[in-house]
Each structure stands twice: as C-alpha cells, then as structure tokens.
C-alpha cells in the first residue's frame, strides 16, 4: 500500500495547486473572488506572474497572483533581518565565599562589572561551607554590597535567595548599558 511522500511544507505554486477552485487575490492585493483553478492559472499566465497559494488551510484556499521568485527573495530578506535584530542573552557566573579577602572581592567585582558592560546577565553565587551555613546574613550583606558597587552598570533581577549551601542573586545590565559603555570608550579613544 503506497502511503505517498512526506507532506511538503513548501508553498504550492501554479500547477501544484490541486483544488477545484481558489479565492483569488490580484497582484496589487485586490480581491478577485472565488475562481476555478483553470481560470486562475490562465490569468496568471496572461499577466506573466505565478499563482501562489498563500492560505492553504482556508476554504477555499487563497491564492495570489505574484512574482514567486521576488516573493521568496523578500521573505528570505525579512527572515535574515529578524535574525539580525534578535538578541542573545548570556548568563555569566561569578562565585564568591562569605569570608572573601578585600583584594579578591575587588577582582570579582571587576569581572562582574565587565560582564555587565558587555550586556550579559551575571549569576552571583556565594558558597557556604560548614558553620558558614548558620550565618546566611554574611552572604546576603556581601551580595547587597556587590549590587550597590555595580549599581550604575546593572540592577538586581532576582533578589538573593538561599539554595541549599549556596546563596544566589542575578544581576542584569541596564537596557542602555552597552550603548553607554561604547560611547564612553569612543570618547576616550578620540582624546
């Protein structure tokens, strides 16, 4: 028993449209009405255009007279443009300990600042060991201090919360942080 090939996701054009009648739309978007498929194909040939099925699920299917090559090119351009405007969210992680040395804290703060300037979110984790777990307020204060120190670059997206042995907080960059940091770099290079 022949099951047929896979269902094509391609748009059907011209002779591939196998329905008795279609709702025809003209080349400038004007409604022509419900037309027999033979008449629609003849109109397409006379206008030197393709008959393209734009809404196959409609009853009857909607077909439009258009230049199919141009249509495919423009839809590919739109898809490329939408991909270009998409923004990828990257989450960087920085781990600290409650009893951190001041110099180590400054180094870690520098990393967090750099991540936020690059437009990335930062997940700050404080790891507690042994008896440190009974003093979560130390971790909370450290996270609060870090958030205050980088306040001009980012804001607290999720407040510090205890998660077993760790305390986690997420910092997100301000919406215009990337543009602002680029502007200051450009100004610094010009002088």
What is the share of helical residues? 25-40%
Based on DSSP secondary structure assignment, what is the total number of beta strands?
8
- The whole-angstrom Rg is 30 Å
Q: Largest sheet, order of strands side by side?
A: 2-1-4-3
Head-to-tail CA distance between termini: 78 Å
Looking at the structure, the CATH topology of the largest domain is Translation Initiation Factor IF3
Tell me the number of structural domains: 2
Written as H for each helix and E for each strand, in order along the chain, the element string is: EEHEEHEHEHEEH
Mean pLDDT: 83
Number of helices: 5
Q: Could you name the ranges where pLDDT drops below 50 across 5 or more consecutive residues?
A: none
Topology:
Elements: E1 21-25, E2 31-36, H1 37-46, E3 50-55, E4 62-66, H2 68-85, E5 91-96, H3 102-117, E6 121-127, H4 136-149, E7 154-163, E8 166-173, H5 177-190
Parallel strand pairs: 1-4, 5-6
Antiparallel strand pairs: 1-2, 3-4, 6-8, 7-8
How would you describe the overall organization of this protein?
This protein has helices at residues 37-46, 68-85, 102-117, 136-149, 177-190, and strands at 21-25, 31-36, 50-55, 62-66, 91-96, 121-127, 154-163, 166-173. It is α/β, with parallel strands linked by helices. The chain has 2 domains: 14-69, Ubiquitin-like (UB roll); 91-185, Translation initiation factor 3 (IF-3), C-terminal domain (Translation Initiation Factor IF3, 2-Layer Sandwich), CATH 3.30.110.10. A 4-stranded mixed β-sheet has the order 2-1-4-3. It has a 4-stranded mixed β-sheet with strand order 5-6-8-7, covered by helices on one side. The protein is rod-shaped. The mean pLDDT is 83. This is Translation initiation factor IF-3. Its main location: cytoplasm. One of its GO terms (molecular function) is ribosome binding. Pfam families: IF3_C, IF3_N. Keywords: Cytoplasm, Initiation factor, Protein biosynthesis.
